[in-house]
Amino acid sequence: MRVPGAGEVRTFDAIRQCLVDDETNASMRHQGWEPLYAASPRSRIAVIGQAPGRRAQASGVPWDDASGKNLIDWLGVSKKQFRNPELFAHLPMDFYYPGTGRSGDLPPRKGFAERWHPPLLALMPDIQLTLLIGRYAQVHYLPSARHCTLTDTVFNYQQFVPQQFPLVHPSPLNFRWQAKNQWFVTDVLPDLRNHVSAALSQHVNPSG
What we know:
The radius of gyration is 17 Å and the shape is globular. The chain is built from ten helices and six strands; from the N terminus they run ααβαααβββαβααβαα. It has helices at residues 12-21, 26-30, 54-59, 66-75, 79-82, 112-122, 135-141, 150-155, 175-180, 183-200, and strands at residues 45-48, 88-90, 100-101, 104-105, 129-133, 164-167. By secondary structure, the protein is α/β, with parallel strands linked by helices. 35% of the residues are buried.
């Protein structure tokens, strides 16, 4: 039976099923892994990361690690808000843990985001802000970033707001980068929180 292409599906449920059935994801399916992302037609902020880590893939919760804790702090939101798909959509560049290479996790598969992000984003008309975390997301969504270093792209974030906000990965392993680039903490993070607050302000969540 032919699996429909990404451009042929028009609902969240249909897209998820296509992801599960797609033969390019067969090895993940055989391990019992589900595609790891979160999305809602009412999402306000899209978080575009690299790919799930081993722990997140096992738990089925995006950003379920120390990097996620740091990111929540950077954004100035609560864990409950961050986990609410009506506020935050989580769309990594690959929805499956890519495995381990010589120097850490392997990169997201080429062509994955190109295929699956557009139909998902088409179902989220209320996205006000897209966070581009790490080099892979920035090269894909910011053509001008292709010839710049990640540091240059993040330093010049004001070129891309209010629609997009490039960030370094919040991994604790990046502490040396943060120590070397103090402007990120003193200048970028306060402005990031302002943009996140503005993007969420149009959404009233009675439960907080």
